[in-house]
Design brief:
The complex is a heterodimer of chains A (about 160) and B (about 180).
Chain A: H1 2-15, H2 30-42, H3 59-73, H4 78-89, H5 104-127, H6 139-158
Chain B: H1 2-24, E1 43-44, E2 54-55, E3 65-71, H2 76-88, E4 94-101, H3 105-115, E5 122-125, H4 129-134, E6 141-146, E7 149-155, H5 160-176
Parallel strand pairs in B: 3-4, 4-5
Antiparallel strand pairs in B: 1-2, 3-6, 6-7
Classes of the chains: A mainly alpha (about 160), B alpha/beta (about 180).
Chain lengths: ~160, ~180
């Protein structure tokens, strides 16, 4: 039981292990704060480029978090808050790029490669069925095999 | 049959070229979302005295090309680009305005006193909120504006060569367009 409580406690700590932990003015309503956090996680920090603004310590990220909170408190829908960011920083600010003509390869490239690869494997396996079927040797083959093995043994035996 | 034999090689060459091109791209370069869009609605206090230092109204000025530069005394690259700004301010038909970003007014003032003041006027963005409306990611950042429309966004310092090779041709081109 104690172990469980400790585990739960440690897990709860990890939930907060990000930069918003240092923000002073979080939203009072936990539901609103959760919604704000969900939005922050989708937004890329423009200073530390591979982090979301939710975990970034950069001052610009802090400013953007404050804006997200303010807009959440004002009751703006998620889409409107995201649009506020993209109108200033472009699609670049989104960690998950939207599907557009320019991002088709990004979205479907891996799937296309997988289909091509799968097709190639399928062809490769089907093309050589003989190799897969085991058949007992007939008398002639057995004789040849014995001869070959015999020669080999003799040769090896002759070696110093 | 020949194609089938060389297909792996062709794929290899294709990927090779794609990766080589990809490696030369700069992942820190952020494409601007603001080009072709109007400047944000803003009104900033001046660095010295009262009233309005810089506002949206200053962004439309007949044939003149407006250049807005975000700077701060605490920003190293801003010092680096300062000589370029002094040159930029002297270009024909250019009005260079400054916005001091998250800086103490007295520090901005002494920065300009020591290095020279290239700006026609300076507005103060104490909290950096105005910069977010411009899509600024950090100082220094420079916008070229004509008739209230952002035409170019320069992220990072302006190097000496860029004044002649980038800004001069751009200003000339925009001035030839005439007032719209």
């Amino acid at each position: 039981m104690r172990v469980l409580i400790l585990a739960a406690f440690l897990f709860a700590l990890t939930l907060d292990a990000n930069a918003i932990g240092v923000d002073k003015d979080r939203l009072a309503d936990p539901q609103q704060e959760a919604r704000a956090f969900k939005i922050m996680k989708q937004l890329r920090c423009l200073v530390c480029q591979n982090e979301s603004i939710a975990v970034s310590d950069a001052s610009l990220a802090e400013d953007l978090r404050a804006i997200v909170r303010k807009q959440v408190r004002a009751g703006k829908p998620d889409a409107e808050i995201i649009a506020f960011m993209t109108s200033r920083y472009g699609d670049w600010v989104l960690l998950k790029p939207p599907l557009r003509p320019g991002t088709v390869i990004l979205w479907f490239g891996p799937l296309i490669l997988l289909v091509i690869g799968g097709f190639m494997v399928f062809r490769f396996v089907r093309q050589r069925p003989e190799t897969a079927i085991a058949r007992p040797l007939d008398a002639d083959e057995k004789k040849r095999l014995k001869k070959i093995l015999g020669e080999k043994n003799e040769q090896e035996g002759n070696m110093p | 049959m020949l194609i089938r034999r060389f297909l792996p090689l062709l794929i290899f060459i294709g990927l090779f070229v794609a990766f080589m091109v990809g490696l030369t791209l700069n992942p820190r370069e952020i494409p601007s979302a603001r080009i072709g869009k109007p400047v944000p609605d803003f009104s900033l206090p001046p660095l010295e005295g009262d009233g309005v230092g810089l506002s949206t109204a200053d962004m439309t000025d007949g044939d003149n090309i407006i250049i807005v530069n975000f700077f701060a005394s605490w920003c190293g690259p801003c010092r680096l680009e300062h000589p370029s700004l002094m040159k930029l301010a002297k270009l024909d038909g250019v009005k260079l305005y400054g916005i001091s970003y998250k800086d103490k007014p007295e520090n901005s003032l002494s920065f300009l006193k020591t290095l020279g003041n290239p700006y026609v006027r300076v507005g103060m963005d104490l909290k950096g909120r105005n910069a977010i409306d411009w899509g600024v990611t950090g100082t220094p950042e420079t916008f070229v504006v004509k008739n209230g429309i952002i035409r170019y966004q320069h992220i990072g310092p302006i190097y000496d060569v860029q004044v002649g090779e980038l800004f001069l041709p751009l200003v000339k081109k925009l001035r030839q367009e005439g007032p719209s």
